[in-house]
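User: Show me an example of a complex going from sequences to structure tokens.

Assistant: Sure. Here are the input components:
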Amino acid sequence: MLSHYLIQALRSFWRFRLSTAINIVGLSLGMVCCLATYVFLESLLHSDQQFANADRIYAVTESLWVTKTQRMVPQIAEVSPPVAKFLQADYPGLAAVARALGLGPMVMATDDRKATLYGAAIDPDFLKIFDLRFVSGDPRSALSASHTVIITRAAASRLFGTENVLGRHLLLENRTDLTISAVIDSVPSPSHMGDTAGAILRFDFLVPMSLLHSFASNAGVGVIADPDADQWGNDTYFTYLLLPKDGSVRIGEIKSGLQTFAQRHAPHAAIILKYEVVPLSRITVQEMGALYGGTSGITVIGVAFALNGLILCIACLNYANLSLAIASTRGKEIGMRQVLGASRLDLVRQHLVEAMLLGAAALTIVILGLVLALPFLNHALGMLLRVSVLAEPILWLMVLLLLVTVTAVGGAYPALVLSRVRPVDALRAGTVRTGPRFVPTLLVGVQFAAASFLLVAALLMLDQNHLLLRVGLRPDRDPVLVIANDINQLGVNKETLRTQLLADPRVVSVSAGTSPPWQSGGWHFRVQNTPDSSAKTQVVLLNRVAYDFFQTMGIDVLAGRVFDRAHSDSFTFGGIDMANPNGPRLQAARDDAVIIDRSFASEMGWSRPDEAVGKLLYDRDLAMPGNPPHQMRVIGVVENGYPRLIGPDTDSNMFVLSEAQASVPVVRIRRTDVRGAVAHVDEVWNRLVPKVPLNREFSDELFNRAYQTFGLLSGILTGLAIFAFGIAMMGLFGMALHVASRRRRELGIRKTLGASAVGLVILLLKDFSKPVIVANILVWPLALMAGRVYLSVFVQRASLTAWPFVLSLLITLAVAWVAVGGQAVRAAAVRPSRVLHQE
Amino acid sequence: MFCGEDIASYPESRLAQLRKQNLGFIFQSFNLLDDLTVYENVELPLLYQNVPRSQRRARVREVLELVDLQARSGHKPAQLSGGQQQRVAVARAVVTDPKLILADEPTGNLDTANGEEVMGMIDTLNQQGATILMVTHSEEYGGRAHRIVNMRDGKVVGGAEDA
């Protein structure tokens, strides 16, 4: 019997080749999305499984809250420096607790070679927790001395041309002499750490945490972190714990203990801290979620599943719709089978076999396609999907599940409807009524609703990205060059650098900040406009800048003045005067000069920029303990537009003068001779710091890098929308086939009554447009909500206008017309004599 | 009434059962399934009765021989003449050895020669013991029946009494 069904199915596929092809393509598109996402997520969720202790390793996560309900920094696996210390004290039974701190790119030099490499500082037990693959050296003692370094094989080859480098010396940032104590292999992907660009903890070399002290003492008041500082809220340290093998400490204990962790250990922290733990394999997902979801709490996985469910659903509906359309012309066959003794169950079975066969065909195409596309996907997504997932039974289980879903969801309705056909009706009319008339319309409507939702969301994203590009890349302006070397570390004299750079007329202005432009995040600072401690606080991002910052970055001044040398503006951090950091601590409160941007001014209730000038602001974070609040005076208001892409929750900025800390120089050069100006910058640098290569980048490049993820995201969403539209278009085409054949007689009669072909085409298009328009409009509110969430991630937000919605409606209509146009024209060209004669 | 049972109140599922086991159908327009070969068309009722493959093969051969179409068993209906198609339909109707064969104007779409041939087959079947209920406009073919019921506009107008 089964073989009969199969043969019958294959023959009917052949007879309805067009519809079958459409069906297979539609199902394939749906499945491609599902499987690709599955493989992607699977890779993501199986991060770090290569470590021997993977199932016993957890990372502590921290989230920062301004108030109990207002979250400032989402749950991330980087936590404050003291967490590890107290965790160890709370749970002495833990096998190990260790931290890792990403140091970013640094210059490493041998006697004759230099390279910019990523570094990380680790606690000794890090090597106990993670069994990194040692090529040479001993993991137990590799970093026991303070001036030692572990480097990857690849880095060793770059620096020495050989991997046999044990005991050789390296000069870090032209300052610190290190001895190579071990060489390791790269950490295999997928992992949250490693030497790939996508790694969250990126390193080519590892140094002991204790080395940071020597950095700090060298740099004076620098930005280098002190790993032993009691800094709560400085969430930069990955903190891992290893459960003991014997199970004497359970993760449940730690989870419950962490709930009161902040109260017990940081009762006086200026900010509300919350702690949790995540298993090692979830770190990547946690960090991605924090990056893309911001504080909204939306997870990458949730969104991925929702979108894929949507696409698969469209594909299944499409299948159901098309098989109904085909079935209506197979009425005679169905009736005849019943006459010959087929029971209803037989018919249901037959149609399910057909559905399953189509599903299997689609799946085969998809899997083949996926294997071929994997390298491309890896490239596009910038991360390593494991080809080996194809060998895992769980994937095939998933494939089977997908097939069953498609068969059940797509095939069940047509099978049921067809099995209910009464043989008498089927044989008499030759065609059958396949369920209620509105069902195909509804199916198509739902498909278009889903597709329109994706389209509006994609358009909103596009709009936002366009704004980002407009803000980020301003070809009409003189370009800004960023020097990414840490000049505090290198001991470069800033005044010398500035005057020498400005000596060339092609350099317009020179300034500095504490981080390169377009970096996400920043220092969250809580400010009040009265000294009263119970007053409401406002969160603002605090930026420490050098003189001429606004002029260099092209930020307009709206009121008041900027920092200048004549006014001896200054700022105090905990009593340390930034203008004279090595001087005595100030005891008395003093007016510190601050500049705020327009957005912060309006948040503080000053709607006109000049209202804000001269006003006082207060904060407690920087006050001396036991002293009244730290007092600041607004000296100027500048336009919004500090170069930052995503800012968790706040997009207002405050600027203070801190020449000492602003260690990232920015240089505006004339666009008329960029090449000459850059050559001049290089020349000055090589004269001042001959041993360290200049690590310079245009602000545009930094922007592009930061923007990449969002470009990719909107690319993915646009891709999904196109997929969805492709499938929905096929569904509509199927419905057009169905309706056109059903209405042939009606159209024939209309024609005999004098209707023109053009009139009939318009009539048909109108009918087909209705469900499409209704579906589109119905999803607008949903799309609006989704768009709001996406926009909330950014500092510069596009305003929500009507055009993405209107455009989506137009595109949807155009797509619909393309899909049904041919059928409508064909149906309208019907010769009345032929259809009516057939009666 | 069928075989002593009132079937008017049967639900659809029992009707399907009844059709499967007791009835054979022959239509004016043949109603063969275009996608299936002659052999498969004739085999179909046996498939629905879950007859084992070897028995199916033997039985289908047998009835195809009866209608003299063994040579055509691999052809599709579209490749056959009207008479041949109707012979396939006859073969399909008798393959399950039904108690009753319902024939709805079996010769209506055929020319005289083919019509004669099909009627000859129906006669043979009847002589072999099958009950045949045939609807026809043809006085001549009607005359071959053992019992005739005349109908006009859906009403019985003569010959209704039991013979």
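The lines above are the inputs; the final block is the predicted structure for all two components together. Chain B has six helices and five strands.
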